Write the structure tokens for this entry.
Amino acid sequence: MRKRFVVCAAIKFDSGIVLTGARHWDKWMHAMADIVGEERLGMQTEDGFIDNMGNFLTRDEAKNLVIDLNQANVDFDELSRRGTLFSEELY
């Protein structure tokens, strides 16, 4: 069984489409959104992350996973108190 870890930032849309990138709304995520087109994306529903198995994780789920795995690049006590994971903290 492979170890699960957080890979990159993701944004989920009500259309079911999920865009990914190194950071939320980085140039690559913007480029993918332009290719897909606003009308197909629908409304943005949630910022989150993707794990190495391709699953969408909410910010809270990703935060808990990086804390459990000691993956984040931040102070874990601060991350626990703040409650939100940012893509800049992954690497």
In short: The CA atoms of residues 73 and 89 lie 5 Å apart.
